[in-house]
Automatic annotation (TrEMBL):
Species of the source: Algoriphagus winogradskyi
Protein name: Queuine tRNA-ribosyltransferase
Region (RNA binding): 264-270, 288-292
Protein's job: Catalyzes the base-exchange of a guanine (G) residue with the queuine precursor 7-aminomethyl-7-deazaguanine (PreQ1) at position 34 (anticodon wobble position) in tRNAs with GU(N) anticodons (tRNA-Asp, -Asn, -His and -Tyr). Catalysis occurs through a double-displacement mechanism. The nucleophile active site attacks the C1' of nucleotide 34 to detach the guanine base from the RNA, forming a covalent enzyme-RNA intermediate. The proton acceptor active site deprotonates the incoming PreQ1, allowing a nucleophilic attack on the C1' of the ribose to form the product.
UniProt pathway: tRNA modification; tRNA-queuosine biosynthesis
Catalytic site: D104 (proton acceptor), D283 (nucleophile)
Length: 388
């Protein structure tokens, strides 16, 4: 198994704002962690169970150019389990990924188990989707679990409210999330990482789609003065314009000198619009999930590779973005693999879609630095929203 080549010194995560776009709120920056630097804006591939589906770590690094990936606390806690991860020396050594890792708190997965969980002030009782066994997540033990998983960035335990959601429920949930955050911070500050490198806690703004709640939550999260902040509870079914409105409201309040992470977003157009609103970090299962269903994102628009029109199209999948997979394989060949249900189809499509997402945020960064982001963004949103 791959091992870290040498022990790196412990240092606090640091965010440096490199450039601010003059015609939008888009920013370019650098997040420094003990496992390497992250150039923002950035998209983070989702590796739910310690693996980005159908993608090798070498491909993530060398082909996709991923700078940070995600793991999921709920799934990793259940399988392979904390004993295995701790014996391995943490998730980095277990899966061989030497760059930064972010873990979500597991809250979204737990709360999606609406029929098999019970929320109290103390935390959440839930049943495993694997074997029905009972488990208890609290703000304190979720900090401990993520310490043991070994992520560079760990998320506070929160409740992700559904959409639509009544105002009273959203308010009560937000207030409980704030109380849980205080407990998360207390536990996090009272403990240390297990593997010799720094870990950072990000709190999460909630409040559903209610302006006053979002404002209140953003102000509370900002007041805790953590090294980065996240925006949760969006991209859960609300209209895109509502998501943008809530994001703009929150980025107005969250501090300029801390990275901002919009959780679970989204389509290429969503990402571009939210970069323009001042968001730095994104994640979403869409590129890999859609890839497995034959939906490809390209620099000129999105395509259903199953369609007959690609049967004799021997051009590369998307030569404009470069990279081995997107230039070597033709649309016709990928269509053939997809129709034939060959496993290689999911691999090629997943690597391509993730390569496109990383290319897209890389292009956004270049245009922010060049000073023409706003014009480029408007043109690109139209392109990536076009069905080819």
């Amino acid at each position: 198994m791959c091992r870290m080549s040498q022990q790196q010194p412990i240092s606090d995560m640091k965010f440096t704002l490199t450039h601010q776009d003059s015609k939008s709120r888009a920013r370019a920056g650098v997040v420094k962690t003990d496992h390497g630097d992250i150039q923002t804006p950035i998209f983070m591939p989702v590796g739910t169970a310690g693996s980005v589906k159908a993608v090798h770590q070498r491909e993530l690094d060398q082909d996709i150019k991923a700078q940070i990936i995600l793991g999921n606390t709920y799934h990793l806690y259940l399988r392979p389990g904390l004993d295995v991860l701790e014996k391995a020396g943490g998730l980095h050594k277990f899966n061989g990924w030497e760059k930064p890792i972010l873990t979500d708190s597991g809250g979204y997965q737990v709360f999606s188990l609406s029929g098999t969980r019970k929320i109290t002030e103390d935390g959440v009782m839930f049943k495993s989707h694997i074997d029905g066994s009972k488990h208890h997540f609290t703000p304190e033990n979720v900090m401990d679990i993520q310490r043991t998983i070994g992520a560079d960035i760990i998320m506070a335990f929160d409740e992700c409210t559904p959409y639509p959601c009544e105002y009273g429920y959203a308010r009560n949930s937000m207030e409980m999330t704030h109380r849980w955050l205080t407990r998360c911070i207390d536990r996090f500050d009272a403990t240390e990482g297990k593997y010799g490198y720094n870990q950072t806690l990000f709190p999460i703004v909630q409040g559903s789609v209610y302006k006053d709640l979002r404002k209140q939550s953003a102000e509370f999260i900002a007041s805790t003065n953590q090294q980065g902040n996240a925006i949760g509870g969006l991209s859960v079914g609300e209209p895109a314009e509502m998501m943008y409105e809530m994001t703009e409201l929150v980025t107005d309040i969250l501090p300029q000198d801390k990275p901002r992470y919009l959780m679970g977003v989204g389509t290429p157009a969503n990402i571009l619009e939210c970069i323009a609103l001042g968001v730095d970090m994104f994640d979403c299962v869409m590129p890999t999930r859609n890839a497995r269903n034959g939906m490809l994102f390209t620099s000129e628009g999105f395509i259903n590779i199953r369609n007959e029109k690609w049967k004799e199209d021997f051009s590369g999948i998307d030569p404009a973005i470069g990279g081995y997979v997107s230039t070597f394989y033709s649309k016709a060949y990928l269509r053939h693999l997809t129709i034939s249900k060959e496993i290689l189809a999911a691999q090629i499509a997943s690597i391509h879609n993730l390569s496109f997402y990383l290319w897209l945020v890389g292009q956004a960064r270049e245009h922010i630095l060049a000073g023409d982001f706003a014009v480029w963004k408007d043109q690109m949103v139209k392109k990536v929203s076009t069905r080819l």
